[in-house]
Amino acid sequence: xxxxxxxIMTSGMSGxxxxxxxxxxxxxxxxxxxxxxxxxxxxxxxxxxxxxxDEYVMRELREDLGIGVITSVAGxxxxxxxxxxxxxLLDIKINSxxxxxxxxx
Amino acid sequence: xxxxxxxxxxxxKRLFMTKEQIVADLKEGMADAADLGDIPDLSEDExxxxxxxxxxxxxxxxxxxxxxxxxTHDIGTIRIDGDQGNSGVGIPASRLVGAMxxxxxxxxxxxxxxxxxxxxxxAKPVIAxxxxxxxxxxxxxxxxxxxxxxxxxxxxxxxxxPFENPxxxxxxxxxxxxxxxMEHSAKHLTRDIVWIMQRMMxxxxxxxxxxxxxxxxxxxxxxxxxxxxxxxKQFPDIYIEAGMAGELLLGMHGELEYDGTVLAGxxxxxxxxxxxxxxxxxxxxxxxxxxxxxxxxxLGRAVTFIKQAVKDSTIPCHVNMGMGVGGIPMLExxxxxxxxRASKAMVEIAGVDGI
Lengths: 105, 355
Description:
The structure holds two protein chains of two kinds. By secondary structure, chain A is mainly α. Helices cover 62% and strands 0% of the residues of chain A. Chain B has twelve helices and nine strands. In chain B, helix 10 (268-278) runs parallel beside helix 11 (295-312). The longest helix of chain B is centred in the middle third of the chain and has 28 residues, at 175-202. Classes of the chains: A mainly alpha, B alpha/beta. At the A-B interface, helix 1, helix 2, helix 5 and helix 6 of A face helix 6 and helix 12 of B.
């Protein structure tokens, strides 16, 4: 366990503490290299690329955008609901959201 | 008396070296990579930067602010509830709890769901359980969640699988029969990976992580590349991470090709193009750690190889930095000082897109 946590602390983007999940989604969904992925997400969020790893900036912004926050906020979007908002924000499709929508009657 | 700095051997043991000794080891490791891969040396500035990182007095170091990268994970949730064989810490917890702990407690950028036996083949008999777990995880998770496993083509050879063991055949000088056995195994492996991922995608998976491609040699990579190609055609939006098992693709077969390129003997920067051609989104290059050399030697060598792979790749590179690869010492509990220095060097000098 210590090794992955060391990497997260040394080099990682802190996931939903900041915007690591969003940058990772752009690398995976569009094959963007790190600089391009950060620029894309920063533009969509109207922040700087540096802000994407800044928990101070991202904590409140994530709650405002409804894209999931690290602490458990009652009533805030989580799971599929948060990812559905991420789809719209980043202009991408997320498979689990598509499957969820496909099951609605 | 010259100042000595605290380093590690490739097996993790404490080592004291002077700056001159560190530079000499860095250059020797770099030269080994440059010679084997027929790739350029690091620049003097990059060597100076490596020395600076290695000799920083802090126990733990970090990348410069603004240079952070996403981290992906092999083995994933099994770290929490798995046993020592999977580097697990044995906490009784469901895989959903493990995935959510990574997302909300550890700040993981992505996560992976895997089967406790962690190869594609043993996931087949329990596929309904895997699908159900993926569905529940996807309903609760926010970060990208891949399904991960090892291609592990060795499971298709006797006594574990249906095809005669190529090692036994080669010992009897039955080379053609050994090759034929590998080709049959590769077809079955491709078929199994695609079959499993069709079901995981139906369960909402974001995609797939191929962990340790090439562990059984060139046939293992041949099968994996064809599985990637098939999955990309069937699922144009699937996330595919293609992580390697070792730095050099071993030619167990020797004559297998993909897109006109012989697979045997490929180094990381040469593997990158084929992985992208097949349809992967992210490439996970590997450089093995030599336990008999210092961390300076290993890091000089690993950064030289990976820098070239990043340069030649057309898709993002998430370098493999687990136990015994990417300049990380080869032991079960890699030291934080060595892990953080290797991590920082890969981001700031090799220019990786992720880890």
